[in-house]
C-alpha cells in the first residue's frame, strides 16, 4: 500500500484548491531532510510546514550567513558526567528537517556534548544554561545517556536576540533519560530549535518542553527508535501572552517493534494576538508491530483575541498494533466549574485562577522535576495576575 493509500485508508482524505487542482497527499516521512541549506528554499508561509508560522519574523534565521554572536552553554554537571566540545557532526541523531535547522547545523562552529556514563545513576540534575546576548546565534547540543544509565538534563534558554539550535539526544539501551527544555527568553527574543532523539532497546525517554517567554518560539521534536521495547513520553506546557507565538511540532516515528509513545501538551493563551500552534505527527510503519501510542493536546483560551491551532496526525501502515489514538480540544473556561467555586464564596478572579491551575496541575506533576514544577507554578501565577489585570482594564 502506498503512502497516499495509507493516509486515505486511515481517514486522511485529499483536498483541492479548485477544479482540476488536487493537492497530493504526502506522508510525514516523505518530507525533505538534509544537511544542505540549498535543499530548503526560503519559506514564504504557504508551505504546509510553515503556514502557521510568522515567517517574516524569522528572516534573519533563514539567511545562510554566520551568526553575530557565539553561543556558549554554561553546563553544571555532577561528578562523572563528561562535558566536552566536539565537532557538530560528531553525533547524528537526525537530519535537519527545515531551512533554519540546516542553517544552524552549518553555522554552529562547535557542539557541546554532555555524556552520562554507562550504568551511572545521577542523583542531581545536569543544568545547561544558554543565555542570548542580543545578536543572532547558532547552537548545537548533544546529550547522550550511556547503557543502563539514569539521569536528568535541564536546558534553560534565557536572554535576548535570535537563536537557532539543534539538540541531539541519544538514549542508550536500557537507559532512562529525562530532558527538560525551558524557553523563557526576553519579550522580543526569537528561538527556533529542532530536537532529534533516538531511543534504544528497552530505553525510556521523558522529553519536556516548557515555553514561557519569547516573541516567537518554534520547537520541533522528533523521536525514533533504534531497537524494540523503547518508550517515549513527550510532555509540553506553554502560556502565550499578547503578541507571543508559541509553536510545537512533534514527529514520533515508530519503526521498531513493541515500542510506546505518549504525547501530552497543554497550553493557555491570554491577550490580543496571543497564538499557539501544536502539530502532532505519529507514523507507525509496517514493521512496527506491537506499537502503543497516543497523543493529546488541550488549549485554554482566557481572553478574546487569542488563537490556538491544534493538528494531530496519525499514519498507520500495519494493523498489528496494541493501540493508537489522538485527540485535541480548545475552549474557554468551564462555566460550571466557575459557578461551583463562586457559589461557595470564592471571588471570580480567584475562581478563574484555580481553574487554570487545575488545568495545568496534572501535566506539571508528570514532569518529575520539583524545581521545574515550582518555577512553572510561580510563572503561571504571574501570568494569571497579568491576565486578570488585562481583563479588568478591558471591562472598565
Give an overview of the whole structure.
- With 396 residues, the chain is of the alpha/beta class.
- It has two domains: 1-30, no CATH class; 35-334, no CATH class.
- Helices cover 19% and strands 42% of the residues.
- It contains six helices and 18 strands.
- The protein has helices at residues 3-9, 59-62, 99-107, 335-342, 348-367, 370-395, and strands spanning 15-16, 22-23, 74-76, 82-86, 111-116, 126-145, 150-171, 176-183, 190-199, 204-211, 216-225, 231-240, 245-254, 260-269, 275-284, 292-301, 307-316, 323-331.
- The protein has a 16-stranded mixed beta sheet that branches. A two-stranded antiparallel sheet has the order 1-2.
- The N and C termini lie far apart (61 Å).
- Residues 1-24 have low confidence and may be disordered.
The structure class reads: alpha/beta
Put simply, the count of helices is: 6
Element pattern in H and E: HEEHEEHEEEEEEEEEEEEEEHHH
Envelope shape:
globular
Largest sheet: 16 strands, mixed
- How much strand? 35-45%
Low-pLDDT runs of 5+ residues are: 1-24
Which percent bin holds the helix content? 10-25%
Calculate the mean pLDDT score and round it: 90
As for the number of domains, it is 2
Task: Give Rg in angstroms.
Answer: 21 Å
Terminal-residue CA separation: 61 Å
Number of strands: 18
Amino acid at each position: 500500500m502506498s503512502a497516499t493509500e495509507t493516509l486515505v485508508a486511515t481517514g486522511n482524505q485529499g483536498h483541492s484548491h479548485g477544479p482540476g487542482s488536487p493537492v497530493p497527499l504526502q506522508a510525514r516521512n516523505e518530507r525533505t531532510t538534509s544537511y544542505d541549506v540549498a535543499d530548503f528554499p526560503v519559506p514564504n508561509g504557504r508551505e504546509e510546514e510553515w503556514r502557521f508560522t510568522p515567517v517574516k519574523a524569522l528572516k534573519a534565521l533563514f539567511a545562510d550567513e554566520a551568526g553575530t554572536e557565539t553561543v556558549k552553554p554554561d553546563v553544571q554537571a555532577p561528578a562523572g558526567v563528561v562535558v566536552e566540545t566536539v565537532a557538530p557532526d560528531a553525533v547524528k541523531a537526525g537530519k535537519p528537517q527545515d531551512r533554519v535547522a540546516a542553517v544552524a547545523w552549518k553555522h554552529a562552529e562547535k557542539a557541546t556534548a554532555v555524556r552520562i556514563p554507562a550504568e551511572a545513576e545521577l542523583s542531581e540534575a545536569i543544568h545547561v544554561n544558554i543565555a542570548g546576548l542580543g545578536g543572532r546565534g547558532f547552537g548545537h547540543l548533544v546529550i547522550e545517556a550511556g547503557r543502563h544509565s539514569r539521569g536528568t538534563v535541564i536546558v534553560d534558554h534565557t536572554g535576548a536576540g535570535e537563536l537557532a539550535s539543534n539538540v541531539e539526544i541519544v538514549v542508550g539501551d536500557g537507559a532512562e533519560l529525562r530532558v527538560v527544555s525551558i524557553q523563557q527568553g526576553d519579550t522580543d527574543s526569537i528561538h527556533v530549535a529542532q530536537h532529534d532523539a533516538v531511543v534504544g532497546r528497552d530505553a525510556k525517554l521523558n522529553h519536556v518542553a516548557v515555553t514561557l517567554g519569547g516573541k516567537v518560539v518554534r520547537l520541533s521534536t522528533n523521536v525514533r527508535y533504534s531497537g524494540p521495547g523503547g518508550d517515549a513520553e513527550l510532555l509540553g506546557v506553554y502560556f502565550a501572552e499578547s503578541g507571543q507565538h508559541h509553536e510545537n511540532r512533534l514527529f514520533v516515528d515508530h519503526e521498531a517493534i513493541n515500542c510506546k509513545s505518549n504525547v501530552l501538551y497543554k497550553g493557555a493563551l491570554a491577550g490580543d494576538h496571543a497564538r499557539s500552534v501544536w502539530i502532532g505527527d505519529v507514523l507507525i510503519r509496517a514493521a512496527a508491530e506491537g506499537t502503543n501510542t497516543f497523543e493529546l493536546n488541550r488549549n485554554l483560551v482566557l481572553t478574546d483575541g487569542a488563537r490556538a491551532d491544534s493538528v494531530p496526525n496519525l499514519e498507520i501502515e500495519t494493523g498489528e498494533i496494541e493501540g493508537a489514538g489522538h485527540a485535541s480540544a480548545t475552549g474557554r473556561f468551564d462555566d460550571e466549574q466557575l459557578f461551583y467555586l463562586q457559589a461557595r464564596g470564592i471571588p471570580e478572579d480567584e475562581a478563574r485562577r484555580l481553574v487554570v491551575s487545575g488545568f495545568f496541575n496534572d501535566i506539571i506533576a508528570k514532569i518529575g522535576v520539583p524545581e521545574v514544577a515550582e518555577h512553572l507554578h510561580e510563572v503561571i501565577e504571574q501570568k494569571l495576575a497579568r491576565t486578570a489585570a488585562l481583563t479588568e482594564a478591558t471591562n472598565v
